[in-house]
Amino acid sequence: MKFEIKKNILTKALLLTNKTLLNDDLNQSFNSLLFDVKENEISISNYNNNFASLIKINQVKIYSEGIFLIKGKILIDIVNNLNNDLILFEIIDNSILSIKTNDFTSQLNLLNSDLFSKLDFEYKDWVNIKLNKNFINNLSEKISFFTFSNNITNNILNGVLIDSTRLKNKIEAIATNSYYLGYIQDEYIGENFKIIIDVKTIKFIKVINDISKNENVFYTNGKKLLIKDNDNNLFMCKLLEGEYPSVYKVLEETYPYNFSIKKNLLNNSLNVSSVITQSDNSPKLEIIINKNQINLIAKSNEFGISNEKIPVEFSNDINQIKFILNLKYLNQMVKIFPDEEIIFNFISNDRQICFTSERNKKYKFLLLPIKQ
Fold it and tell me: Could you tell me the pTM of the whole model?
């Protein structure tokens, strides 16, 4: 096997494969790249427990065909640091990969390619779904925050439900850990689908999207998600399987009371409260609502107390009401809120608070109060 390739072309391909490489000494396949050199094309594949990639290179001069398996990180580090633009690769004695430029030579030990499992990237009859870059960014930067983060990878609440089957020409995404919930709705034209994606996969998809200049194409069979980029490179991801909790009823509730508050004003107050409660494992914030103001009270046995009054206007007359909220959850929700004006919607002090925006109506964030 022998081929010659420009450094920038190979570097771009290796950048994509690097997203699925793992530093795993127990399974060599997870940190290795399989090169399949054919007459007019090179395919580079890699996989781990969650992701797989198949990268294709056409801009290459191939002298002879062949297959080889090599440690991915070593090859990537060498190629990235070469000073010459043209690189010659050649297999010697079926066990050594020779790498040459005008002023550099290297010989790397190859791995047994028989140990590399055959990857199936067939997606015929899969559903072609539409996930635009803006929607993926919102999933990664906002909605995925609401998942239940733990090390149990198959927990449904570790994932985000994405559903286009419920509302006509709409796509919905929901994430919850049962204490708070994030929801987004967007326009959708395409084949209907319903999948659950874990946070790692969402971040992986965002990385691939950020590298691609144009929108990628997505396919799913309900168990896996396949991404096809503009250069026909393929990326496979596992999906979470199971039934996501039914939460649409709580999303459609009406709220008799609401008030709005500036995000920066609330954020500053919550930052002060966080300083007061920094030594608490589960910091709490007491919110006392009166007719024309709210009091934000934070208490700590170690540092003391803070009490800030913020004037607000209510939609309806209301007697005094008190909420106790998880300060950490509220603080993080406010930081990722998509508008500068936050509307607090509520029913009573033992029911969820719904955070909405007049300008960005597609978002809803929900937070349960702590029982008093």
Answer: 0.89
